[in-house]
Amino acid sequence: MEDYLELRLQEGADWGLWLARIEALRSSLAGLLGVRPGELALTSSASAGLNSLASALSFTGGRHRVVISDFEFPTSAQIWHAQARRGVEVLHVPTTATGDEVPLAHFEPLIDEHTALVAVTHVCYRNGARLDIPAIVELAHARGARVLLDCYQSVGAGPLDLASLGVDFAVGGMMKYLLGTSGSGFMFVRGELIPTLEPLATGWLAQADVGAMDITGHTPAPDARRFEAGTPGVVNSQAAAAGAAILDHVGLASVGARVEALVTRCLAALADQGVAVATPQPPEQRGATVAIRASDAAALVEALARHGIVTSCRDGNVRASFHFYNDDEDISRLLGALARERALLR
Ligand SMILES: Cc1ncc(COP(=O)(O)O)c(C=O)c1O
Known about the structure:
Blueprint: H1 2-11, H2 15-33, E1 40-43, H3 46-56, E2 65-69, H4 74-81, E3 89-93, H5 104-107, E4 115-121, H6 133-142, E5 146-150, H7 162-165, E6 169-173, E7 185-189, H8 234-250, H9 252-272, E8 289-293, H10 297-306, E9 312-314, E10 317-321, H11 328-340
Parallel strand pairs: 2-3, 2-4, 4-5, 5-6
Antiparallel strand pairs: 1-7, 6-7, 8-10, 9-10
The structure holds pyridoxal-5'-phosphate (PLP).
């Protein structure tokens, strides 16, 4: 980010260098996600990608439904509800009675020949529960529906191979485990689908030939850049590139192994102390977040901050999230602080 400021002062707007750096980010992110650079749009947020995709999808021909889970982040539900004027009906796949899981069996009756899209989160932002994406993809594809994955809560916290997961679309962003900053997101669109999708939400940097500056028509880029729009957040992209370089250096397999081990040890330690959690126990059913049940979640977040521990709260739970740079000492400090703040636990 400092480098961006320096360049801005010395050169003004060096578009050549800016765009070259954005293409470098596209390539390194594609490497981390197991996809081709041309299948990735770099966006200002996950929402921007979703809106562009929504504007390109067709909901005619009897397929007018979007199936989402009750684990979705608000934007990933609201954008589909916003398509109601275009005839879209949104079906919600409910959680179990505890609210902690959305089992595959709950998807089964809701996906059928009227489903255009199944739009699901990989890991729930509220409690860190992980959905069974390969099984959901299999079910949706068998019934002719496309699958969109919101991987914001999983990307960067371990290996994520979008091509082998078989999803048609994916959105995410750089602000969490990708170690970037706000104002930067991405969208993956499976290569074969790109020519069939022409977004209504567009802009000059989504054109096939950006340099043509043609105002007499509109020719979308042949690759996923067609889902982009205007002047990119260059400074945010540079932060994203720095984060991606760190993850590339550490390796997502190592990151994933470390995160899983830390979450496993943290859950075991919490259970030992009788602290209730909303996060599923089996490793394949969770991500990098542990959600601790609180009697006053906002007060517990504040209390933990006084102990030097940064957490956040959602849904009456306090979220503690792990990355490769955390260690057992962090778990001990969290447990120690929770022991002193017992009154705020549920
Ligand atoms: C699952 C999920 N999706 C999306 C977002 C954010 O989307 P956007 O980049 O549009 O703000 C978040 C942010 O916390 C998230 O957790």
